[in-house]
TrEMBL record:
It comes from Camelina sativa. This is Uncharacterized protein LOC104704807. InterPro entries: Transposase_MuDR. Residues 164-218 form the Transposase MuDR plant domain. It holds the Pfam family DBD_Tnp_Mut.
């Protein structure tokens, strides 16, 4: 059986990413090799295998049971490598993908922000949960509106930019934009109206203030449009923000808590004040941490279930192989993942 300290990295190279019309992602025209080593030795072993062919490559990794669109960027000298190593120790097998940045430049962004910028932008990129029963007017716009749609002012997710006649795919996206705006400007705003087809927000301070934004559904383009926007505050900034509730804070720091379970409410409170000049209560941060832990716990249970399915799939496709999913029992008698072994018998 394989060394328990080693991880099997299935490396795909020479190919590129493609996406079809429904958003499914695939890696095409690549070759593959298997590298078995300690996780921290991965780049040394990969360099020995590919030599100069490693230069100019952009990399991604994913769990074997994840879809391609769940892949994550991999860099040799930042937190992403540590995360991949930790994940590899957990699963025993990792998939790694290489794409030549010169031949396929559109597979990546044109600029690479630093780790701190990545974390701050990630924290403001997604805030609100989707309501499964919400009516998003999924009927496509009619042909008369298609020409008008080409000239729409579209919202760039996470930018914090709001403007008149800006359009959104849903009211949830509009609310997400409000949160990003509040964080970017460090101002206090609150939702004043929230309905099926319209929403509005006003200044959240106690002083009279003209700041106001109103968004409603525009039938001709099939989207929600900002109809009124008064972007001037006459109040004194109180450094609070009523739209910054526990579920929003939870999403802001969810990845940080995944990486470091000891990431506490006090740190969350300090980071918000440091990065956005906003004050939030410690109780609100405690509720956010509690929600994050519940989400991560549900994810772990789902991933553990998928790992069992993955083991069965390996045995079905490779009947002669040895696949062992090792677990231990928790205090309450529930199964906890311990190790995963996979050995291919040739």
């Amino acid at each position: 059986m394989s060394n328990p300290d080693h991880v099997t990295f299935l490396v795909y190279f020479g190919g590129y990413w493609v996406k079809n019309h429904v958003g499914d992602v695939a890696y095409l025209n690549g070759k593959d090799i298997a590298i078995e080593c300690k996780p921290e030795e991965f780049f040394i072993k990969l360099s020995a295998e590919l030599g100069e062919g490693l230069y100019g490559q952009n990399m991604w990794y994913k769990y074997p049971f994840e879809e391609h669109n769940e892949r994550k960027r991999l860099r040799s000298a930042d937190l992403s490598f540590k995360r991949m190593c930790d994940a590899g120790r957990w699963t025993g097998v990792m998939n790694v993908f290489l794409v030549n940045s010169t031949e396929h430049p559109n597979d990546i962004e044109s600029s690479e922000p630093c780790e701190e910028e990545i974390r701050v932008e990630r924290n403001v990129a997604s805030f609100v949960d989707e309501d499964e029963d919400f009516d998003y007017h999924n009927t496509p716009p009619n042909s008369d509106g298609e020409e008008e749609e080409e000239h729409l002012v579209r919202y760039k997710r996470g930018s914090g930019q709001l403007e008149i006649e800006q359009v959104f795919d849903s009211l949830e996206e509009f609310r997400e934009a409000l949160v990003a705006y509040a964080l970017k400007e460090g101002c206090n705003i609150k939702i004043s109206r929230w309905g099926k087809d319209k929403s509005a927000a006003v200044c959240g301070t106690k002083e009279p203030c003209p700041w106001y934004i109103y968004c409603s559904y525009e039938e001709c383009v099939g989207k929600w449009k900002v109809k009124t926007f008064e972007d001037q505050h006459s109040c004194t900034n109180d450094n609070y923000c009523k739209i910054l509730k526990a579920p929003v804070i939870c999403k802001m720091f969810l990845d940080d808590i995944r990486t470091d379970p000891d990431y506490g409410p006090k740190w969350m409170q300090q980071e918000i004040e440091k990065n956005y000049n906003l004050i939030v209560s410690i109780d609100k941060c405690k509720n956010a941490k509690k929600k994050a832990v519940e989400i991560i716990d549900r994810e772990h249970k789902e991933q553990f279930s998928r790992l069992k399915d993955y083991r069965l799939a390996l045995l079905q496709s490779n009947p002669e192989s040895i696949v062992v999913l090792d677990t231990v029992l928790d205090d309450d008698g529930s199964e906890i993942f311990h190790r995963f072994y996979w050995m291919v018998v040739l």
